[in-house]
Amino acid sequence: MNFILRQINVIGWNRMLALLLLVWIIILLFTIIPMLTNHLSTSIDTLTSDRLNRALADLEVLRKQNLELQDVLKGISVANLKPDQKEALENFQHRLIKADRSLNEEDEGYIHQKEDPSIQYEILRRRLSNNVQEFWYYIHSELKKLQSQIQDSQLQTSIKNIFNLGIQQKQSILNDLDKLGEVDGYSTWREKEANDLSNLVQDRFRYLQNPSDCKKAKKLVCNLNKGCGYGCQLHHVVYCFMVAYGTQRTLILKSKGWRYHKPGWEEVFQPISDTCTSTEGETATNWPGYGNVQVLTLPIIDSISPRPPYLPLSVPEDLAPRLLRLHGDPFVWWVGQILKYLLRPQEKTSLLIQNAITNLNFQRPIVGVHVRRTDKVGTEAAFHGIEEYMNVVDEYYNQLELKKKVDKRRIYLATDDPKVIADAKSKYSHYEILGDPKISKTAAVASRYSDTSLQGIILDIHMLSMTDYLVCTFSSQVCRIAYEIMQNYFPDASAKFRSLDDVYYYGGQTANNRIAVLPHEPQLGEIQLKTGDIITIAGNHWNGFSKGRNLRTNQMGLYPSFKVKPKIEIVKFPTYSEMYNNQNAEDS
């Protein structure tokens, strides 16, 4: 006992109390959250069910009364009625039939309403999952600090036990929240809404890019050869497309002499327009142009001036209400839709992808792992060993096995260093590791701008985007693009990633802001928050804290990640209503 007391004095009573407090918070949180989740689900379901049952019962009474009236009227002989009486009776019968149809439609409307969740429900469900994860980052970080300062083996064992139990509890809560999204009755709605929204914007893209008269169409010219790598160039084209959509100009992509493939974009991907590829026009100038100039040439995002409102991270105002309900990161969904349109493969590119899927025996479940080594490490990104990536992969599969049996743990490993694949296969032989060392060699700086390298990076990005979960560094544009494309495979894939360094960002973006939803008074040097404050985020430290600047106080520093929410930048884009007017005119 005296020995333990001496050890406590060594590490300090404050730290021991902090440890005990953490344990108490863990137990409290993991006890309350499932109760709150169940209560929330039960309350919503009960309230909705009661209202629907009452409404359907009222509709059934009205329907029976309607049918009884129709039966009575059918028994009335019209032979002896005067013409005006006969007409009145027929009109009344017609109204009864119409009312009956209306009741049926109302009935269907109530049922459909049950399938549509409220925006508050969807946002809260996602926020709960995010906050559980952020809380665990904090607990994990603090336990690691204590563990590094304690020498006593018994206390080390106690902390290890707390750590292991905490992981299990976190996994259990996240599993419950995941199940909530499956059993709340809204999963069909999410699938349908995702498809409907995608179809809507893809129709608009096709309309914009295929004007009826190319000679008269307003155009925006974009030069593909920005001086950077494939991922950066692809994001450059996406930015051009955003501005074209916002200014209602057909995008003309100049790609001849492309450093990755000299013949140009159209030999690898389908043309972005079937009817308009010429840059010719009566008037032409550089951005921002003047008056109604027909052809505008757009500079790179880093030097555009004045900056239009359509730049990242903005989303169209008319889509925002639906996106906020459906998706955890509306801007990433928006980029994913643009990439869906741009990256439609030519037949030979499609064949290349299909052969790779077959040869690799690509199966689910599978985690995508992207390890960037060469030109990024030491300049834009820090070094991360394969163990860091695989620890997260292990966490994912441990979580997944709470739901179902996993026949084989597998990853798709993409990297620009072939040694990484060999290292992973040596250390993680119990995993099935899919990856091609030949692709890794072509991704090296010396051979990057070649047809073989282009094929390799297209395959890597496509395979990564098709996985169930991504582990990577968001300092790499390759991984960010894979994450953006991934949004096309799930109604909401905004949480299907773990970045070992940066939060998601888009090069040349406007400020990435958060809104404080809870106040915070600095305790250990953090910045102050008041509810409603706007904070420009500089990064998440993955320890329960993020770094940013409070625009109210101009303070730069750390703040608890759970006390803020994303601020979605909503901008008034064109709605392309004329597209439907033209379609109606053609149909008539």
Describe, in plain words, how this protein is organized in 3D.
This protein has 588 residues and is of the alpha/beta class. It has 4 domains: 2-185; 193-324, no CATH class; 349-499, Rossmann fold (3-Layer(aba) Sandwich); 513-571, SH3 type barrels (Roll), CATH 2.30.30. The protein is built from 16 helices and 16 strands. It has helices at 2-11, 13-74, 83-115, 119-149, 153-183, 187-209, 230-247, 320-326, 330-342, 347-360, 386-400, 418-427, 437-442, 451-466, 477-486, 577-587, and strands at residues 219-223, 250-254, 284-286, 295-297, 314-316, 367-371, 410-415, 432-434, 469-472, 497-499, 513-516, 534-540, 545-550, 556-560, 564-566, 569-571. The strands form 4 sheets. A 5-stranded parallel beta sheet has the order 8-7-6-9-10, with helices on both faces. A 5-stranded antiparallel beta sheet has the order 14-13-12-11-15. Helix 4 (119-149) runs antiparallel to helix 5 (153-183) and helix 9 (330-342) crosses helix 15 (477-486). It is globular and about 100 Å long. It starts with a helix and ends with a helix. Residues 1-5, 30-45 and 108-113 have low confidence and may be disordered.
